[in-house]
Amino acid sequence: MAEALQDATVKLSLDGVTSGYGAIDVLRGVSLDIREGEIFALMGKNGMGKTTLLKTILGAIRASAGRIRYEGAEITGAEPRALIAAGIGYAPQDQPLFQDLSIRDNLRLALPGDAHLPSALERVYGHFPFLADRLAQKAGTLSGGEQKMLIIARALMTEPRLLLIDEISEGLQPTVIARIAEALREERRSRGTTILLVEQNLDFALGIADRWAVLKLGTIDDAGPAGADAHSRILRHLQI
Amino acid sequence: MTLILDILTTAAILFVIATGLLTIFGVLKIINFAHGAWLTIGAYCAVAVGQLGWSPWLAFPVAFVVGAVLGGLTERFIVRPLYARPLDAILATWGLGIVVGQLITLGFGRDVQFTAPLLPGTADILGTSYSIYRLFALGAAIVIGLGFSWLMEGTRLGLSARAVIMNEALAHVLGLDTRRIRWVTFMIGCGLAGLAGVLLTPLTSVDPNMGLAWLVGSFMLVMVAGQSFAALALACLLLGGAQVLVSTFLSPILGGITVAVLAAIILRISPKGFSRV
What is the value of ipTM here, to two decimals? Predict the structure, then answer.
């Protein structure tokens, strides 16, 4: 897989991207290439800019400098709506579900219309069968682990070609993390989905990722393949 | 029996008037202080339809369309540029209400106007003779309420609107067209205000400032209801009922301020009002 990925085309490219909130830059000239079909883990402590990076790619935060390219086309400054339609999926970390809406309605909202809803639902049932029996249940009444699986299921509804996932393993039991990891592996295996995974859980991230990078104070501080020394190298960056 | 019917029909009329305001407040998070002006426009649509010799029933669709179209233009050119400054947006709608009132005065004059009764006469309800038109208003409120429930619960637009109401930031990153949802919602809210204006015309005189008093009442009802239509219906029933009781047994003048005073007391005791209904 690693050799095949080295020859793969670049799916997502960030070139000197700077962004933040108001006058405060959180990302400072981030450059990154993620290849077609790759699972890329972006690691880093809290407040280093990981979520800001995902939101900047998705157009929810404007980049003040630099360029972002997706499948060869520049997408810097594009609206989330256009990027979702172009095949990017997003599993957010902050307030990620409509708590008072049913599971079905949360999943429906991922699609632009209801025409393909049945087939999309069938697809995500394959990853998370419990959803099929509880479609009418309000999302806010699910357990923490079930909510995380619903977030991933919703992101997969549109069959994205690039999936952005923000700290999905936070606070989860190992069994749930394993189910999510298997779903992501299967998506990559069956559809070649490229995945950018923002994480702090080393075991989960390195268990599925091909490459990794550490974000520190808004810049890429270290990067490498998910080989034997990855764990210790990343750990050095994450330790206080 | 008459008292019960008065309470029900008053609550129904208040509900129809406040529904448009709550719709806009829920999605756009701003109070449209031009709501009274849109209600006045609806009432003058009824006047205009009468002057043109058309069927008075045509005033309902005409007022809805006129309200929706003008509302769409207002959202696009006045409210949308001010979304990042909600206080300015609210002040802009207040100013717009004044401008609309003046334009109506220019077009129709200051004089009080009346429209032909839509449903004259009374009906016998359990031995009580009661205005057919007020019963029609009650039915209209039920139809609008059910229609709105269907729109919100049974359509894609309603689902998107509920998503924006609950968490607009999430709706935005999931790819929902929040701009279009706001625009359509504003149009529907203004169209409903126009509809309410027509509904009022057989019950009250029409003048360029008629919307102001109704705006204050419906604003207070929306504050009590939060973002829930069920809570709005309850608030209209309780506060509208109190208004009828005070008007009947104490003084019509005191009755006129009952909704505002009770709403202020409710919000003092429970800042979230009835929003958990």
Answer: 0.89
